[in-house]
């Protein structure tokens, strides 16, 4: 299946949970300052592990960083 | 003296003793940023929300440094061009940082970085309804500011001049009208170049000043941070003290009587 992760196309061979996708992106479950949206809807941290990612999903993984 | 000592800034029920809010971007390194934040006396700092990159952990270290110092966090929606983008960014910020405070920025183009008023009002209204404490970066337009107040924003943040320009206050008359016509705090945001600009904003009646580049890109950021602290304090004190009106002609200060050489 095809996914759009932070605006870039990614191909995934098999069914994957959002938590696994974040793990592959080196995001720890308890990492501070991070948030995730699936198809423009925020997925709360507690739901990361049991949210299924489907073909064509758009995922945004963000981080709070320096800003003005 | 009592009056000045207890003169706190209050936004959405939260009290601050410092009237200077600082951005955390464009510092030469994290240590200079920390030194500058400390020298400024600020209690509230802004952050941005950006896409995570596997190879980049700099952002995380910035956040952990800032968290250690217990600053009040004010995430922004910088870089958003539409209400839709700004709303999602605010919701991500709330999830990432555990705060419902948001510095709402919806810009119209890349050259001026001026706010898009139509999108800004739309985003502000929806975010207030969703329970956010909204501090909108806006034009120095009294009507826009009044509308943002009526929507339920917790402050208005009119620009002094374009973001990062350091051009100072381009229209002090509009800022005075805004201060006179709204009841919520007015925070002058963007365009402050040096300490006298910050002092001027406070003399006009601003409740606080928000700035970033003027400190982070100064030759000596921590020194400029201290200068800004003093500028804000001096301007605030002068505002409370009540300045004399500007006259066209002289008005002598020494007594007119008892001059030598007169009969």
List the keywords.
heterodimer, A: 68 residues, mainly beta, two-stranded antiparallel sheet, B: 263 residues, alpha/beta, five-stranded parallel beta sheet, three-stranded parallel beta sheet, 10 helices, 10 strands
Brief summary of the model shown:
The complex is a heterodimer of chains A (68) and B (263). Chain A is 10% helix and 43% strand.
Notes on the structure:
The complex is a heterodimer of chains A (68) and B (263). Chain A contains one helix and seven strands, in the order βββαββββ. Chain A is mainly beta and 68 residues long. In chain A, a hairpin with a 2-residue loop joins strand 1 (2-5) and strand 2 (8-11). The longest helix of chain A has 7 residues, at 18-24. Chain A is globular, with a radius of gyration of 12 Å. Chain B is built from ten helices and ten strands. In chain B, the strands form three sheets. Chain B has a five-stranded parallel beta sheet with strand order 5-4-3-10-9. In chain B, helix 5 links the parallel strand 6 (101-104) and strand 7. The A-B interface holds A 6-7, 25-27, 31-37, 40, 42, 44-45, 60-68 and B 23-27, 33, 46-54, 58-60, 62-64, 67, 73, 75-76, 78, 84, 88-89, 91-97, 163-164, 212-213.
How is the topology of this model organized?
The complex is a heterodimer of chains A (about 70) and B (about 260).
Chain A: E1 2-5, E2 8-11, E3 16-17, H1 18-24, E4 34-38, E5 41-43, E6 52-53, E7 58-66
Parallel strand pairs in A: 1-7
Antiparallel strand pairs in A: 1-2, 3-6, 4-5, 4-7
Chain B: H1 2-5, E1 9-11, E2 14-16, E3 20-23, H2 30-40, E4 44-51, H3 58-68, E5 72-75, H4 83-97, E6 101-104, H5 117-129, E7 133-138, H6 142-151, E8 157-158, H7 172-181, E9 187-189, H8 195-203, E10 208-211, H9 213-216, H10 221-241
Parallel strand pairs in B: 3-4, 3-10, 4-5, 6-7, 7-8, 9-10
Antiparallel strand pairs in B: 1-2
Helix pairs in contact in B: 2-10, 4-5, 5-6, 6-7, 8-10
């Amino acid at each position: 299946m095809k996914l759009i992760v932070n605006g870039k196309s990614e191909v995934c061979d098999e069914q994957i949970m959002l938590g696994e996708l974040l793990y592959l992106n080196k995001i720890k479950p308890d990492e501070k300052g991070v948030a995730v949206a699936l198809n423009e809807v925020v997925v709360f941290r507690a739901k990361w592990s049991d949210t299924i990612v489907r073909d064509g999903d758009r995922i945004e993984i963000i981080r709070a960083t320096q800003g003005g | 003296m009592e009056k000045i000592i207890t003169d706190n800034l209050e936004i959405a029920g939260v009290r601050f003793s410092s009237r200077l809010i600082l951005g955390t971007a464009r510092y030469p390194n994290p240590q200079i940023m920390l030194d500058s934040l400390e020298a400024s006396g600020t209690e509230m700092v802004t952050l941005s929300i950006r896409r995570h990159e596997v190879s980049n952990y700099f952002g995380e270290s910035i956040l952990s440094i800032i968290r250690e110092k217990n600053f009040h966090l004010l995430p922004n929606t910088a870089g958003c061009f539409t209400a839709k983008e700004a709303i999602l960014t605010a919701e991500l910020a709330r999830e990432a940082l555990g705060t419902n405070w948001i510095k709402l920025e919806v810009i119209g183009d890349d050259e001026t970085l001026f706010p898009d008023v139509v999108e800004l009002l739309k985003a502000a209204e929806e975010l207030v309804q969703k329970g956010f404490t909204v501090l909108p970066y806006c034009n120095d337009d009294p009507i826009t500011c009044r509308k943002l107040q009526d929507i339920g924003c917790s402050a208005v943040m009119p620009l002094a001049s374009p973001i990062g320009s350091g051009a100072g206050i381009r229209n002090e008359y509009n800022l005075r009208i805004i201060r006179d016509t709204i009841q919520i705090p007015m925070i002058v945001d963007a365009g402050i170049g040096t300490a006298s600009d910050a002092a001027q904003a406070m003399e006009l009646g601003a409740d606080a000043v928000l700035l970033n580049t003027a400190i982070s890109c100064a030759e000596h950021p921590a020194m400029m941070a201290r200068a800004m602290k003093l500028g804000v304090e001096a301007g605030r004190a002068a505002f409370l003290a009540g300045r004399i009106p500007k006259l066209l002609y002289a008005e002598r200060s020494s007594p007119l009587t008892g001059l030598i050489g007169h009969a």
